[in-house]
Amino acid sequence: MHQKTEFKPSLFLLAWGITLLSLVVRPSPYRGFLFIPILSICLYLAFYTTSADIPSNHGVTCALFSLIFSSLDLTVLTDVQNELRLVGQKTSISTASLSDRFWWALRLLSSLRGIGWTHEPTTHILPYPTTSRVRFLWDQLLRTAKYIIIFDVVRVISLSNPYFLKGGPSLTDAGLLWRLTVLAHVITVYVSVARLYTIYSIVSVSLGLTVPGDWPPLFGYLGDAYTVRRSWGRVWHQMMRRFLLVESDFLAYKVLRLPRKSTFTTYFKLFIAFFISGVIHHVADYAALGHWYGGALAFFVYQAAAITFEDAVIALAAKFGFDKPTPLKKVFGYLWVAAWLTYSMPMWWGPLLTGGFLEAIVEPSPIMRLSRGEWYPKPDSGNVLSTAHSKIFHT
């Protein structure tokens, strides 16, 4: 492997700034050329620089490749100033002043889910907050505290799980009950991302940069997670949704010229969307682990396969009159989704966890401070939690 230099945040900001510039300049057949330096900078940072630890490398590379695909959408594939509009915007922004175009572009680039834009996926986003500014900030502070506590509890427990420790056995080789513990990591990722979102919302609204209505919850209702499709399309964050849809549409309709009203086209686009997401996360695995044997690409393609299977089962059941969700059907649905994630997630997170991902998270622990007088939890595969795990999940 070639020698890597230290990650340069200034270059990442430069790539982001060039993307912003591509949205500010008026429509031009040459605007797409701005994608070349964006792509070049992001590839250099992803493959020739490194961050302080495994989680940082993973997160930074996810951000870099997300920027690549987002810029491909906004800079090359979409005539943004003529095609995209804020809700209530009557005319194209292309005729506006430089100042107006700058703030319009900044808002577009900052709104990964399209909140407040006509392309917002309204059926996949929870309702906007309607509370006062003070109440919104209080609610977000409480949510942040809740996420911190949940993250801390799950992390402390996870550090007693031998399958989550560096150099430990892989979840891909574990028995069924041990594999179930991968769901704890789903919780960790969920609350980590949600916590960042609430903190950003507090800062932004406090400074008067945005209003509470700009910050609908990042994740959907957990109660909607009774199918794999709904888990990914309604419950999980939708920050990649736009560019995944745009690029799968481009490949299907512009490149391959597939028929628009076709079952094959629908599922072709589904697989392409998950493939792109898999590429983003697989490169992040490479940056974190230093090799290409991570499981992200396979994991995300498997999600498309599961949704295809699931849709077929639901369509078959509908022919026999079982087309409406009921409480009992939802219970079976939750069990199905949990079983599917228990099966599929270890192929992705098994290598990352045994590579030291969890142990590399350096973050103070209120629980450890209160219980042991230590701020930072340490791997403890021999503690009481591990003993309980062994008795309950012995395989």
Automatic annotation (TrEMBL):
- Which residue ranges run through the membrane? 7-24, 30-48, 176-197, 266-284, 296-319, 331-349
* A GO cellular component annotation in the UniProt record: membrane
The record's subcellular location field reads:
Membrane
- Tell me the classification of the organism that encodes this protein: Eukaryota, Fungi, Dikarya, Basidiomycota, Agaricomycotina
Q: Which family does it belong to?
A: Belongs to the wax synthase family.
- Chief subcellular location equals membrane
Gene Ontology biological process: lipid metabolic process
Instruction: Give the membrane topology, semicolon-separated if more than one.
Output: Multi-pass membrane protein
Report the residue ranges that make up the Wax synthase domain in this protein: 215-301
- Keyword DNA repair belongs to the record: no
Give the protein name, as stated in the record: Wax synthase domain-containing protein
